[in-house]
Amino acid sequence: MQTTLNISEEDRKTIVEAFGQESGRWFKCPNGHVYVVTECGGATEESICNECGARVGGTNHYVGDGNNLATEMDGAEAPMFPTALDRPVQQ
Fold first, then answer.
1. Residue 90 CB: number of other CB atoms within 10 A?
2. Using CA atoms in the order 77, 24, 48, 12, what is the torsion angle rounded to 10 degrees?
């Protein structure tokens, strides 16, 4: 699993500033590749990671299993959308 961003600190800051979003919108796929959720900060679409093909995003404002907050991008301690990391109960 990738544990570092593999970009310079200057690039990280530039990327975060370019999106101009409140903190807590950056997530990682199950393999550690970073992506951003805009709008309200809760995932409403699923896609695949451009780097590894893993599932990213989610539905109903939840990110999918194995996706986690990318605190290394903006220092967020919690997701912008409060329940984004909650996993709905499967029935």
1. 4
2. -90
What's the confidence (pLDDT) of residue 89? 65
Q: Which residues constitute the domain of residue 31?
A: 9-74
- Let me know if residue 86 belongs to a domain: no
* 52 flagged as catalytic: no
Q: Split the chain (91 residues) into runs of 10 and give each run's mean pLDDT.
A: 76 94 94 94 95 96 95 96 83 55
What's the number of domains the chain is made of? Answer: 1
Q: Which residue has the tokens 């900060």?
A: 41
Choosing from 29, 40, 49, 52, the catalytic residue is 40
- The answer to whether residue 1 is domain-embedded is no
